[in-house]
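Worked problem 6 (solution included).
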Amino acid sequence: MKRKQAQKINFTKRALEALPVPRDGRLTVFDTQTLGLGFTVFASGVKTFFHRRFANGRAERTTLGSFEDLSIPQARGQAANANAKVAQWKLNGFQGPSPFAKTARTGATFGELLEAYIKGQVSQANDPADAERNLRWMAKKYFGAWTARRIDSITIEDALAVRNKLGEKHKYQANRLVEMVKAVFSWSAGSKDGKVNFWPVDNPARNVELYDEEKRERFLQPHELVAFNDELKKESHRDLRDFLTLALATGARKSNVLAMRWADISFERANWNITVTKSGKPYDVSLTPAALQVLRRRREETPDGGAFVFPSHGKSGHVIELKKQWDKFRKRAGIPDVRVHDLRRTKGSYMAISGVSLQQIGAVLGHRSLGSTEIYARLHQESLREAVETGDAAMLRMTKQARKRMKLAARKQKLLPLKASRA
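Solution. The predicted structure is:
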């Protein structure tokens, strides 16, 4: 199969700025003026110059610098210098060290590592599209300054700077960023079948400590549920209203509810099979009358052939986020600190309060181990204590009643001989 040739253009600032940002992967073009000089636009929006030449039967690629840090004349100068070294090496019969030896060893950038990680690791996630979307969002928001940097230049100080910028005020997000860096670099230096995944580089986040996190136990209190339900009845945004109803009724994660497929729903059995889960193990959700009412209405309103309960024209085919509408809703309801995930916790909490076993709560919420259900243990214990106290009260009440009956019976037994003698 003939390989498609990359487009060649005359590199000018206007021409390079006009290149479109690809929705995924990368866009590559080559300069018509300087042999081997290329330019890449990543899906994250980062743009870099590179040099690529075939030498001694191998394609050698070297990153030169970012579009922001390197001018076109500078990039052409570096590429021309590399071409001269390749020409001399060829004249020498490819004897001696390769002119690419040093740069090839240190040339990979963080942006290139991310693309390789997405292709080699993220593509194997339970929900690859969602995982890639989250990773690209984090990379663009927090690691934009790293994208064109060589990966061997990124140190623990850089990882600490990212963590400390968010600080303890946003320690949960700070920890997730550290874990992301650690995972990406760990994968890079890892190997499979004796072949390194991407590059044998030190992990800058290996010894970065995470902030202590308190397990969030927030769930809607009874008076907050009243406000929530009252506001839900007035909500005009159809998708938000139905999403919140289903999220609270099923206790499922936000990503699962928004990606709900008609093919996974059985109206006959009032069941929803969640196939893509955090644990990797599918599980079933029993649909309540409130959930079924929403789904039946949406089924009638969905055009034939629609795959998703919450369809969208985006790449995923379904709604991804309702953040703006949700923020307005919770402020109007007087619960501004409540998160979407707290609705899932609300479902589990009231089950625990009602005395449902932790095993059953875990099954309903799709937890793979009881460790994930630990946050409900206290509520469950309180429910058990109330049950014990209720049982003790009943036992005491019934004991008193029995004692009273026994006294009456004893009295009757004593009165019988007396009545008999009088007769």
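Discussion: Residues 112-196 form one domain.
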